[in-house]
Q: What sequence folds into this?
């Protein structure tokens, strides 16, 4: 059972009521806690037939600060990229976008909501655009899980364009969302800035190319999906205002984690599916951890060689190496039916005699005939127990009995 806190610090409880067919193995409950503390150790309660744990896991740390983006500002218009369409509301609208692959606070996102007003929501949870009124992050007001590179009241209806494209620097690729020469509402001043996402990674940067003035209402920051964790680089006159030539990197430090393990014995019938579900409850988050197992048969191993009869090419004589020199599907250890007529008799003796006297490396040497595996074919192979030719005389040769009807 693995817990990874992707929000603020909070208390968690875990309850795993074992289902039918699962028996706890005494003394095996164990826990590994990183970035947190245990208040009630992971342990088995025989009265409730459950394993329980409680503790506190540290929260995720979000920060934003100066750090160069991979390629700095790259005008997508200058690269020949076509402008993205204006949403139905060119002033305060948004587009649902996809085509990127970013890990943010431990979660993978491949789509989001791109708002005219200078933000990108990772995921589609809110279903709405960022409004013209910028917020102090974190903010309980939707949308949440925001990357706010330059959240202010922008109006695409008055000019400028925005673009989405993938840029590569050789080994890595980045999805770039770019606002180029966009004006604020009822203000001719234009701005150019970008959000860079590292495809297949977690790198996020805000990049600026044109900031002739700082709007009175402006947020540069980020927040998580629960709106309980976030930070601002700048908000309405507080903090450091964004500057052209100074890229800002979004960084996150993971929260606490707990790994809870135990051993169990599964009982039931072959092909039974057993599902074990642990419930997880936190101060602001809850969920489940599910493990599914299918009971399979270990199989009958008549000769005790470690190979079950269902796959053994010689069920009555131990032959762990499963050698089958002549490729007929019957292992060397019991392949005495040399003429493949489904019975061991005098007709098989000429095949045995043909190789008589041969030694390992001889052209006539046949491992099928060297029944005692001593490297020489002689009378010892005829009567050497238990893999002896004589012992199977007039009998089906082991597995071949299942493959054909013995000749009369």
A:
């Amino acid at each position: 059972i693995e817990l990874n806190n992707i929000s603020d610090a909070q208390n968690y409880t875990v309850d795993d009521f074992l289902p039918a067919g699962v028996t706890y193995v005494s003394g095996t409950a164990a826990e590994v806690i990183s970035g947190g503390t245990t208040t009630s150790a992971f342990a088995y309660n025989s009265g409730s037939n459950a394993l329980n744990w409680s503790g506190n896991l540290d929260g995720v740390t979000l920060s934003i600060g100066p750090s160069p983006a991979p390629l700095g500002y790259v005008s997508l218009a200058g690269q020949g990229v076509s402008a993205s369409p204006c949403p139905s509301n060119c002033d305060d609208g948004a587009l649902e976008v996809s085509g990127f692959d970013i890990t943010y606070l431990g979660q993978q996102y491949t789509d989001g909501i791109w708002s005219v007003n200078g933000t990108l929501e990772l995921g589609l949870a809110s279903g709405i655009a960022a409004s013209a009124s910028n917020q102090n992050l974190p903010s309980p007001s939707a949308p949440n899980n925001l990357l706010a590179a330059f959240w202010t009241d922008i109006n695409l209806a008055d000019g400028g364009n925005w673009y989405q494209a993938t840029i590569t620097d050789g080994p890595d690729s980045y999805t770039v969302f770019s606002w180029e020469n966009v004006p604020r509402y009822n203000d001719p001043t234009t701005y150019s800035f970008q959000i860079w996402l590292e495809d297949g990674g977690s790198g996020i940067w805000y990049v600026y190319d044109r900031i002739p003035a700082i709007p009175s209402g402006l947020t540069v920051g980020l927040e998580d999906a629960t709106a309980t964790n976030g930070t601002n680089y700048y908000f309405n006159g507080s903090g450091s205002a964004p500057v052209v030539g100074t890229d800002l990197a979004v960084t996150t430090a993971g929260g606490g984690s707990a790994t809870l393990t135990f051993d169990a014995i599964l009982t039931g019938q072959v092909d039974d599916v057993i599902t074990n579900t642990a419930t997880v409850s936190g101060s602001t988050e809850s969920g489940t951890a599910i493990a599914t197992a299918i009971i399979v048969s270990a199989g009958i191993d008549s000769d005790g060689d470690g190979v079950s009869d269902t796959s053994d090419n010689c069920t009555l004589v131990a032959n762990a190496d499963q050698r089958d020199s002549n490729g007929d599907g019957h292992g060397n250890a019991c392949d005495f039916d040399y003429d493949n007529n489904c019975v061991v008799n005098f007709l098989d003796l000429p095949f045995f005699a043909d190789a008589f006297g041969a030694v390992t490396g001889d052209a006539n040497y046949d491992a099928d005939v060297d029944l005692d595996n001593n490297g020489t074919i002689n009378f010892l192979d005829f009567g050497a127990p238990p893999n002896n030719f004589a012992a199977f005389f007039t009998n089906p040769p082991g597995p071949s009995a299942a493959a054909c009807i013995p000749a009369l």
Q: What stands out?
A: The first helix runs from residue 349 to 354. Residues 398-408 have pLDDT under 50 and may be disordered. The first strand starts at residue 2 and ends at 4.
